[in-house]
Design a protein that fits this description.
The protein is 68% helix and 8% strand. The protein is α+β, with helices and mostly antiparallel strands. Strands 1-10-9-6-7 form a 5-stranded antiparallel sheet. α8 runs parallel beside α10 and α18 (543-562) crosses α19.
Length: 720
Amino acid sequence: MRTEFSLLRPCRTVSELDTKKQLRVKRILKILKPILILLFCLPVLSTPMRAQGEKATPTIEQLQKEMYRLYPTNNGDEFMDVTERLKAASLKAGEEGLFYRAWGNQAYFAFAKINRQKGMEIAQAMQDYSLQHDSKLGIYYSSIVNASQSSSLKMEEEALGLYLKAIDYKQKYLPDINASAAYLGAAKIYYNKQQKEKILEMADKALKEPNLIGSNIVDAWSYRCLAATLPKGVDHKEELNQAYDVWKKAKEKYKYNSAFSNQIEFYHARENGEYEQMLEFAKSVKSSLDRYNLMSLAYQYMGQWKESLAYYKKYKRLSDSLNTAEIRKQASEHTMQLDIIRAENQAKELKLHNQALKLAHTQDELEQRRLEEEALNLTLKNRDIELSNASIRLKNDSLDRHAQELKLREFISNLELEQSKEKNERTLLWMSVCIGLLAIIFLSFYLYRRSRHMKALATAYNKLETAYEQLEQTTAAKERIESELRIAREIQMSMVPSVFPQRKGLDIYASMTAAKEVGGDLYDNLLEDDTLYFCVGDVSGKGIPASLFMAQTTRLFRTLAKEHHMPAAIATRLNNELTEKNDNGMFVTMFIGQMNLTTGHLYYCNAGHNPPVIGDDELHGSFMEMESNAPIGLWPDFEFVGEEIESIKGHPLLIYTDGLNEAENASQEQFGDDHLLDILRHTDFENARQVVEVLKTEVERHRNGAEANDDLTIMCIRAS
């Protein structure tokens, strides 16, 4: 039994061991299975992660595109973050131009969309960095940024100077870079100054710059289009259309809209007579200031004066509220504050440097004193030794005592001499210390005086700013008055006809030139079937009151002429209307005529006016003799007497105001009636317009540069 047992036991043990091993292997495989799967998948997972990591670090080109994408938006934080990363990347890559362009865009963006103060601080930091690193590119770009900010603050003279200096700096040190931004900035200021030749010069130079981009080309042609509209009051249609065609193609090619797009479209529509389209362009402008200005001009060209004046007043109110001298004052105060901070920092640095020098000098003095004390101690020890030796020698050699005494006296004398020398050296040391203290006191006094000088300079500068602001307010008020007078003149000129009846057998032309912004002369004509009504008048006085009296007289004449009244009746009814509530005693002299174009019969009434000149076909005539009536507007219920001529066919009629025969030169010599007749008798005229233009030219020649002393109105009528 024991033997069977011993034979079967090992077999069971091996089977059990195999089973346990299998279980262990299964457990190990179960544990290792996820680890193996993870190790197998790790290379596959790491590839997109690496790609994602690479993608998370954008390139310079991507950052640059992102900067230009965000620039038109108002995402300030995102834009500043992108430009900061672009600055770091371009600086690391050694791309100096891109580094300063990104920095400059930060200053532009902050100034326009975040805070003007922050924009100026960024520009100042850019300029300081450029000067510190002696970077010519940085100095150029910071000059452009400062010029742009000055232009936005309406400091146009300072801005123009910076632009021109930047151009000179570029031509001297950086001939290969693109300076179109400086040329276009100068063109903008010249446009505000209405200097056409300068605008064209700057635009042409910008187009000749190397490495031009699409926006530069579109902006340059924008300024050429705007220059084509100058000076005002001249026909620019052909010149504007040529520039407009090139600008339009460039705009479509480069997919870029300049800041003047709506303004250019407005002027193009105006020059081509598309007034309704011009008004629509004006209404679509987003800027309230530009929209009011363009709508005022549009209504003016459409003849709707009331709407034009209303929008012009809105434009002036909004314009006066923007970019006032307060902003420029803040900018000047900011600049001065930076200068003061720099001066204080320099003073602090100088003070610290002097303190360091003083400390080093004190340390040197202490070290010198220590060395002197050590030398003195060694000297005293040597003297003690020498005295000991001398005493020994005196004891040992009593026979030579006298000689020893002499030596001892000599030694004492030398000792006293050295002590005196040491005393002199100490005195010199104390004198040096006193001189150093005096130098420190003088430097402190100098810094104190400099601080007071800076405060006085700041006070004077503030007073100058206040005076400048008052001057600017006065100038703005004067400009408003001149603008309103100009509008009044345009309204007045629109009340007298500039287009005359075109009819066979009738040649009529007239012209009125005011001595001031507005005048008191008038003329009018009205053709009713075969009857021509006409008049020429001269209101007493000048300026605004005379122009208002003239406007009322012109309106009443046209109304009475349409009712087909005779000239004497027109004069009588005009007198009754104008004498009513005429507290200022104003009056008007008039020549009123009514001519039948078929028969040439002329009815007329002269109300205190200069007698006309009537002549033959060549206008070689003389003054008409007629009834002398009173001027209109003086006496109520006055009955005016009319006269008539059977026919004036073939006899030209010249009617004028006393601004012709009483025109004076610098010596106060009048043009005169005889001179008038002499010109008419010795000149051959082809038509009525030539008569008027020749007489106006002769009056200007007679004045010879002297200021006009009265309004000048001339009318010529030829019937055949």
